[in-house]
């Protein structure tokens, strides 16, 4: 049986350069959760971009484990000429919550067309896909896939 899964996404910082914090909490204690890895497939809308070179630098510094999936990705394109992209992120277990995982992803705003009104633009970040792999020992491995 599957326990309740609570997904929370929070955008940190102000301005064009922000961080997306993704937290996943499993509603009931899952035995052996420490043997699990949680992979997050985050969809990045056209109004934002993730810099693949920045991700590579953060991987080298062991700050985050994330990689771009999308090909032919142009970080310079404005939102109206760009496409949605995808990023795979390994979440880390939260040291302050035994049933929780968290990941962070640096995101940047793209330039938009000029507005004649108030100048505000809203960008919706959809829920990611969650893929969990657990190694329970004795050759027993289990997978969980949660679609949006």
UniProtKB/TrEMBL annotation:
UniProt keyword terms in alphabetical order: Endoplasmic reticulum, Glycoprotein, GPI-anchor biosynthesis, Membrane, Transmembrane, Transmembrane helix
InterPro entries registered for this protein in UniProt: PIG-X/PBN1, PIGX
Location, primary (coarse class): endoplasmic reticulum
Pathway(s) where this gene product acts: Glycolipid biosynthesis; glycosylphosphatidylinositol-anchor biosynthesis
One GO cellular component term: endoplasmic reticulum membrane
Domain of life: Eukaryota
Presence of keyword Transmembrane: yes
Pfam families: PIG-X
Residue ranges crossing the lipid bilayer per the database entry: none
Localization per record: Endoplasmic reticulum membrane
SMART domains: PIG-X
Family of this protein: Belongs to the PIGX family.
Known function: Stabilizing subunit of the glycosylphosphatidylinositol-mannosyltransferase I complex which catalyzes the transfer of the first mannose, via an alpha-1,4 bond from a dolichol-phosphate-mannose (Dol-P-Man) to the glucosaminyl acyl phosphatidylinositol (GlcN-(acyl)PI) intermediate to generate alpha-D-Man-(1->4)-alpha-D-GlcN-(1->6)-(1-radyl,2-acyl-sn-glycero-3-phospho)-2-acyl-inositol and participates in the sixth step of the glycosylphosphatidylinositol-anchor biosynthesis. Probably acts by stabilizing the mannosyltransferase PIGM.
Classification via PANTHER family: PHOSPHATIDYLINOSITOL-GLYCAN BIOSYNTHESIS CLASS X PROTEIN (PTHR28650:SF1)
Designated name of the protein: Phosphatidylinositol-glycan biosynthesis class X protein
Gene: PIGX
